[in-house]
Amino acid sequence: MLPEILESPLNHSILKRAQEKRLVEIHIHNLRDYSLDKHRRVDDYPFGGQAGMVLQCEPVDRAITALKEQRAYDEVIYTSPDGETFNQSIANRLSLSQNLIILCGHYKGIDYRIREHLITREISIGDYVLTGGELAAAVMADALVRLIPGAIGDEQSALSDSFQDGLLAPPVYTRPAEYKGWAVPEVLLSGHEAKIRDWELQQSLERTAKLRPDLTNN
Ligand code: ADE
Question: Which of 79, 85, 128 to mutate to test the pocket of ligand 1 (most atoms within 8 A of CB)?
Answer without folding.
Answer: 79
